Amino acid sequence: MNPRGNPLRTKAVAAAALLALGLTACGAEIAPSGGPTTASAHYPVTVDNCGTPLTFRQKPARAVTNDVGITELMLSLGLADRMAGYVMPDDKGRVDQVPWKDGYQQTAWLSKQQITKEIALDAKADLVFAGWHYGFDEGRGVTPQAFRALGIDSYVLTESCRSGKGAERGVMGPLDALYTDLANLGEIFDVRERADRLIADFKARIAAVPQPERRPSVFLYDSGRDKPYTAGKFAAADEIITRAGGTNVMGDLADSWVTTGWESVVERDPEVIVINNYGEVGAEEKRAFLKSLPALAGVSAIRNDRIVVLDYVDLVESPRNPAAISTLAEQLRAAPAR
């Protein structure tokens, strides 16, 4: 899955600008509407983020998010007024159909590229909310440590916690990661009751999804022609497939998003293929490619034309996960027996 600029200001200029505006987590709270600053007995508050304690002395006022799922975690909690803007590509998918769609109009779309230090500084951000493979990137030098050096706090998407050189994701189940981030955001932004209601609603909706009598096998196709890019057991897509009543044929791979071989797909003979819809290569082009690939001609999903399309944001940690589970469950219940 491919993750979802302007000269870098000097550290001295950045620090001066941030000090003048009081935008770090150590200063006084800035009301987003330009109104008076208000103290709160809720702060300071400390949350655990990927095993690291983060302390906030006041409510962030100018958060910048990277990628659609991360942005919608904020919007689903009604936090658009605490955002300086979001970074995401223009294939973010059906934002006009989500319950929190109005939030997109209440904040700014800063860039179609990935988050950079320049974007955060230009937005006068006091918090960057991103994830490893979802904006944070050691190769580009865009890390929580790099933002901290600029006086900007960071929060790491829990789905992506364990990622980097020699380490992979998997500190907790993907849906637990979703609930953890909602609860932590509730604490950070002092909307814990709102977060708890949303978590309870999501859990109830997922628990109510009827399961098929038989669990069909599922292959998640993200991208790739010579070799397919797919979801291992640490990706959110694995638990979405499981909760929908299926079995991820690559669920034994101790990785998140991973490249495998077409021969392993053939060997595991999935009954259903789920296409991850995003990027320059659309779902229909991906479907046509899969159906034209000679190696897959005998695979059950191809023979029976059991190909399901879900949007990218459905398959990564996001508040759209419950609806995606319900949608996929309907498709899996209709899967024919071998």
TrEMBL record:
<comment type="similarity">
    <text>Belongs to the bacterial solute-binding protein 8 family.</text>
</comment>
<keyword id="KW-0732">Signal</keyword>
<dbReference type="InterPro" id="IPR002491">
    <property type="entry name" value="ABC_transptr_periplasmic_BD"/>
</dbReference>
<protein>
    <submittedName>
        <fullName>Iron transporter</fullName>
    </submittedName>
</protein>
<dbReference type="InterPro" id="IPR050902">
    <property type="entry name" value="ABC_Transporter_SBP"/>
</dbReference>
<feature type="signal peptide">
    <location>
        <begin position="1"/>
        <end position="27"/>
    </location>
</feature>
<feature type="domain" description="Fe/B12 periplasmic-binding">
    <location>
        <begin position="62"/>
        <end position="338"/>
    </location>
</feature>
<dbReference type="Pfam" id="PF01497">
    <property type="entry name" value="Peripla_BP_2"/>
</dbReference>
